[in-house]
């Protein structure tokens, strides 16, 4: 097994696997264990997942885990403002790969409201998310090679607001010029405060990006992922 020789900050754990499937399986087991632990205490558990191409095998494995899915509230860390069914829709990705089988019973909170702009929808999304108890139980983040995570993009004019540790809202509209679509994203305090916080990466390029991020840990404006490389984070990687 490839070991992690990156200079990780103290308290950050690395889980490196040889294959995509092994990595997805390990992450799915750990997420399911963590959700079961929260559910044993009674009440509901919350799960936030990311979109993109990396998490598909993780979604499919997680959907097969035995747990009280009907007591899990799930949402995405971010969404592109496109209709469901669009190839860029993270909601569609999740419906096709995670909200299946046992996991069909999940209460899914969609960040996408139909028939209006993201700005117009913001109050309704905030209202929907108000039912979530903070801290969230499980958050699984991804990362782009520009150092973004969720839709916290380095070139988004709204980045300072979304990254503020006192951000008043749980969600922000993001309009990064580098991206084809307007996005909505959960804010840094909501994501970073999770009880179980994981970063799921695939490929040597992502490892190089992580290495770059670790070089200047405080400069999150250049690479927003840096704000999450803190004690408690668990990094899951495969080639
Ligand atoms: O745009 C996004 O990209 C990242 C990473 O995506 P990947 O395709 O490289 O796995 C993802 O974490 C984020 O949720 C998504 O909206």
TrEMBL record:
Keywords, in A-Z order: Hydrolase
Organism: Marinobacter vinifirmus
Name of this protein: 6-phosphogluconolactonase
Record-annotated Glucosamine/galactosamine-6-phosphate isomerase domain positions: 19-237
Entry keyword Hydrolase: yes
Pathway: Carbohydrate degradation; pentose phosphate pathway; D-ribulose 5-phosphate from D-glucose 6-phosphate (oxidative stage): step 2/3
Keyword Hydrolase found: yes
One MF annotation (Gene Ontology) recorded for this entry: 6-phosphogluconolactonase activity
PANTHER family named in the record: 6-PHOSPHOGLUCONOLACTONASE (PTHR11054:SF0)
NCBIfam families: pgl (TIGR01198)
GN (gene name): pgl
